[in-house]
Amino acid sequence: MAGDPASAEAAARYAVHAADGPDAAIGRLRTLHAELLRARDAAGAIGRAYTRTEESTTDAVNRGVR
User: Fold this and answer.
1) Is 57 a residue whose pLDDT tops 90?
2) Strands, E assignment, the chain
3) What is the rounded end-to-end Cα distance, in angstroms, of the chain?
4) Stated pTM of the model
5) What percent of the chain has pLDDT over 90?
6) Torsion over CA of 14, 19, 24 and 29, rounded to 10 degrees?
């Protein structure tokens, strides 16, 4: 901040906008965080399901060879 009244006013508006109101940056970041957590969890579940399928397929193939 430059110390002049216009800069002080702009800084105050920014602070309010960043933390409060329907378009607040912190709210958007929290929403993004929740979405990323859901994506991470979904990717993990898909990976575990894939691994189970591969293990099951490998077991079935190995039983057929014996």
Assistant:
1) yes
2) none
3) 77
4) 0.61
5) 52
6) 120
Q: Are 40 and 32 in contact (CB under 8 A)?
A: no
3-class SS at 20? coil
* Cβ-based neighbour number of residue 10 at 10 Å: 13
DSSP state of 66: -
For 30, 49, 50, 57, 59, the CA distances from 63, given in Å and listed in that order, are: 49, 21, 20, 10, 6
> Cβ distance 24 to 18 under 8 Å?
yes
Measured N-to-C along each axis, helices 25-65 and 5-19 cross at an angle, to the nearest 10 degrees, of 40
